[in-house]
Design a protein that fits this description.
The chain is of the alpha/beta class. The chain folds into two domains: 70 residues, Transcription elongation factor, GreA/GreB, N-terminal domain (Helix Hairpins, Orthogonal Bundle); 79 residues, Chitinase A, domain 3 (Roll), CATH 3.10.50.30. Helices cover 39% and strands 25% of the residues. The strands form two sheets. Strands 5-4-3-7-6 form a five-stranded mixed beta sheet. Strands 1-2 form a two-stranded parallel ribbon. A hairpin with a 4-residue loop joins β3 and β4.
Length: 155
């Protein structure tokens, strides 16, 4: 079983999500029971919707449990002092459009691309790992290859 690097915050986020999912389970089961009691299941839209909700909920619970079971806590401050590693916030210059961007390299449970938190396993995250200030790197996007330059790293 392969471990998943994550911070204490990421693990706590996953545990909170697990609690929320498990708290929803009885309500979804009750909806399924009530829909089943309405009779003919072949044309019972409520039954099919509740069953689909339960399947999605159980799938997400399995996924989150798996991630929690494979969690390997990492203290970003002890990894590397001057390179882009797990937990670092990296300021880069997009050399294609000359715009500065900032990303924090995170693990499961913390990713939020809209707020610049990207997984170390994402294409951008992988490309940034171990880079130092001044290094240039490329990321292959669906449309083209984009070059970046590391401007700064902080923890």
């Amino acid at each position: 079983m392969e471990t998943m690097a994550m911070t204490r915050e990421g693990l706590d986020n996953l545990r909170s999500e697990m609690e929320e999912l498990e708290a929803r389970r009885p309500k979804v089961l009750q909806q399924l029971k009530e829909a089943r009691e309405k009779g003919d299941l072949s044309e019972n839209a409520d039954f099919h919707a509740a069953r689909e909700d339960l399947l999605m909920l159980e799938s997400r619970i399995r996924d989150v449990k798996d991630k929690i079971s494979r969690a390997a806590l990492v203290d970003p401050s002890k990894i590397c002092g001057n390179c882009a590693v797990f937990g670092a916030t990296v300021k880069v210059l997009n050399l294609l459009d000359n715009e500065e961007e900032e990303y924090t390299l995170v693990g499961e449970g913390q990713n939020d691309a809209l707020n610049g938190k990207i997984l170390t396993t994402s294409p951008m995250g992988k490309a940034m790992l171990t880079r130092k200030v001044g290094d240039e790197f490329e990321v292959l996007t669906p449309k083209r290859t984009v070059k970046f330059k590391v401007l700064g790293i902080r923890f």
